[in-house]
Amino acid sequence: MRRGTRPSVAALFSASAADAGLAIVFGLIVGAGLMLLGGFDPLAAYRALAMKAFGSPYNAGETFRQATTLMLTGLSVALAYRAGLLSIAAPGQMALGALAAAAAGIGLPPVPVVQPVIGLLLGAAAGALWGALIGTLRAYRGVNEVIAAIMLNWVALYGVNLLIRFGLADPANRQRTRTVAETARIDAPWLSDLFAHARLSYGFFLAVALLGGYAFFLHRTRLGFELRAVGQNPVAAALAGMKDRRLVVAAMALAGGPAGLAGAIEVLGVYGYWTVSPTLPAAGFDGIAVALLGGAGALGTALAALLFAALSGGAAGMQFEVGVPPELARVVMAAILFFIAAQNLTRGLRERLGRVERRNARGEEAGR
Amino acid sequence: MSAAFGQLLDITLVFSTALVFGAVGGLLSERAGVIALALEGYMTGGAFLAAASAYALERLGFGPASAYGALFLSMFAGALLALVHAAATVTYRADHVVSGVVVNFFAAGLSLFLVKLFFAGAGQTPTLREGMLSRVAIPGLADLPVVGSALFRQYPTTYLAALAVGGAYGLLYHTPLGLRLRAVGEHPEAAETLGVRVRRLRYGAVVASGAIAALGGATVALTTTGNFSHATIAGQGFIALAAMIFGRWHPFGAAAAALFFGMATGLKNVVQLSPWARAIPTEVIYMLPYALTLLVLAGLAFRSTPPAALGRTDEAR
């Protein structure tokens, strides 16, 4: 049931900055085309989107807050991707991480610093455990990691809902957990003040630091090297004596950590509670888009997270000012992803453009 | 006892129909070598277009015929989305799984975008009235004892799904085209050497898979929910994909697996109605089909082999 080798996975890592830039432009053009068909003014809509995303200190701060989540879910997907695995598990892991952090924030003794640190660690551990389960199913039972993740996402969602209703529920509102203790919060008031009270917390720095650590891990540690080796050529890695099954489990567990942390930060740094939900957190799925656009690298993932945070946060402005349904932002994201995935398409177009330019240049020379 | 059996059989068929369409569509694509992860997107697109067009036809005064028109139209949504997947994977050699994820993303975003555009910002299409499909009894057979009513007083989509299973079997195993299609999924280079047009065949298989899977989405909208929202398909495309794997890429196997998963979903509804089950939290019941699917996959995985060239993007063409 190993669904074939995926040689082009390795090719995806090499999404260059130029490919990514071109994909973004094409994605925005697709969105503009749809808006024209719907009778909207795309330029006005994109302007409203940009204003909503970055137009004021508060808006920019909120965009950075969303980018925090996306950096972590993007990092999660990127890590798995480096080992040749596609992780779709981030939504479920986010929910589990959020629940674990909420439990720590509600149940643990209110000791400053210690309580939030334990909460964050528990959140990351919840995500990592879920990832290890998927990795085990993949490595030892041959279940495709995408299918396993999709099924386990639903199990996680309903499990979290169940635990909220029968354990952590707020007596006044059984559809959400109690609010975590003040001592458990990771608010950064000085940063928040800087951005006109946007809900920014120390989680932002944690995400940035983890992305930095990720670059170091990939290129400067033995495990990082082995993961990349397995991702790029599983056969060669196995011949070199690397235990690829154990590496698959390790990669999925490591990837689960940041996704669980993203959920924990939402609880301890933003909302202070988690709610019963009929749907999985969208930011988890958006992590796939972020990692792909970022070429599964640290800097790329950070920039892609900022772009997608701006797109999804700015969508509300687009709706308010111009009346464009906010789902358009998701269509634009999908279009950007399509052009990244079909790199041969963007490459081909670029080569054709290059040829035209060269021809023009030659023409000018000849005319001279 | 026999009444309860008939009821379970009936509800199993109602919930399996969409999965059968999905699984049959998926296996056409995968037997030709293209991973069908985009099934979820095809079904979402089909459900959206079915619900929206049935409502439009209803408003135009087509009455009960609206549902049949909508069923037909829904196939175009799936085919169009499948064309995107085929272009990405066959022509531009994108990773099949990534392209599938993208198509799913795209279908979900675009269909909700269009719902809001057409229906003044609403989160779902208006609920259908006479534009929904109604059950059709097959004279004579419907009056058989025990199973008659469950099997032969069904929605037209259920009969159509049975035809699709038989049709896929006939096509794959008893026609030259089916032989070529399977060859393309096993050994495209060999097939090409013998003059099979690999890319054209793959495009055809993938587009057909989209159209058939979309019928599954339309089935949900036109027989069960009566409208389209973000929750209409909610993972059924992935369950259909699991059914196809569980059924070992064979039409009959896939259909049997789809029936099994449909029963798990149906059980959810039956269980919720019985008094003894009130004590079970709804979340546990909701988890059931997903957990069951995973357990089954983990238990059988090592015994099923996908088409040899599935997901490959590196072959010479």
TrEMBL record, chain A:
<feature type="transmembrane region" description="Helical">
    <location>
        <begin position="64"/>
        <end position="81"/>
    </location>
</feature>
<keyword id="KW-1133">Transmembrane helix</keyword>
<dbReference type="GO" id="GO:0005886">
    <property type="term" value="C:plasma membrane"/>
</dbReference>
<dbReference type="GO" id="GO:0022857">
    <property type="term" value="F:transmembrane transporter activity"/>
</dbReference>
<keyword id="KW-0812">Transmembrane</keyword>
<feature type="transmembrane region" description="Helical">
    <location>
        <begin position="200"/>
        <end position="218"/>
    </location>
</feature>
<feature type="transmembrane region" description="Helical">
    <location>
        <begin position="146"/>
        <end position="168"/>
    </location>
</feature>
<keyword id="KW-0472">Membrane</keyword>
<feature type="transmembrane region" description="Helical">
    <location>
        <begin position="114"/>
        <end position="134"/>
    </location>
</feature>
<protein>
    <submittedName>
        <fullName>Unspecified monosaccharide ABC transport system, permease component</fullName>
    </submittedName>
</protein>
<feature type="transmembrane region" description="Helical">
    <location>
        <begin position="88"/>
        <end position="108"/>
    </location>
</feature>
<feature type="transmembrane region" description="Helical">
    <location>
        <begin position="247"/>
        <end position="276"/>
    </location>
</feature>
<feature type="transmembrane region" description="Helical">
    <location>
        <begin position="12"/>
        <end position="37"/>
    </location>
</feature>
<keyword id="KW-1003">Cell membrane</keyword>
<dbReference type="Pfam" id="PF02653">
    <property type="entry name" value="BPD_transp_2"/>
</dbReference>
<feature type="transmembrane region" description="Helical">
    <location>
        <begin position="288"/>
        <end position="316"/>
    </location>
</feature>
<dbReference type="InterPro" id="IPR001851">
    <property type="entry name" value="ABC_transp_permease"/>
</dbReference>
TrEMBL record, chain B:
<feature type="transmembrane region" description="Helical">
    <location>
        <begin position="158"/>
        <end position="179"/>
    </location>
</feature>
<keyword id="KW-1133">Transmembrane helix</keyword>
<feature type="transmembrane region" description="Helical">
    <location>
        <begin position="98"/>
        <end position="120"/>
    </location>
</feature>
<feature type="transmembrane region" description="Helical">
    <location>
        <begin position="284"/>
        <end position="302"/>
    </location>
</feature>
<feature type="transmembrane region" description="Helical">
    <location>
        <begin position="254"/>
        <end position="272"/>
    </location>
</feature>
<dbReference type="GO" id="GO:0005886">
    <property type="term" value="C:plasma membrane"/>
</dbReference>
<feature type="transmembrane region" description="Helical">
    <location>
        <begin position="200"/>
        <end position="222"/>
    </location>
</feature>
<keyword id="KW-0812">Transmembrane</keyword>
<protein>
    <submittedName>
        <fullName>ABC transporter, permease protein 2</fullName>
    </submittedName>
</protein>
<feature type="transmembrane region" description="Helical">
    <location>
        <begin position="32"/>
        <end position="57"/>
    </location>
</feature>
<dbReference type="Pfam" id="PF02653">
    <property type="entry name" value="BPD_transp_2"/>
</dbReference>
<dbReference type="InterPro" id="IPR001851">
    <property type="entry name" value="ABC_transp_permease"/>
</dbReference>
<feature type="transmembrane region" description="Helical">
    <location>
        <begin position="69"/>
        <end position="92"/>
    </location>
</feature>
<keyword id="KW-0472">Membrane</keyword>
<dbReference type="GO" id="GO:0022857">
    <property type="term" value="F:transmembrane transporter activity"/>
</dbReference>
<keyword id="KW-1003">Cell membrane</keyword>
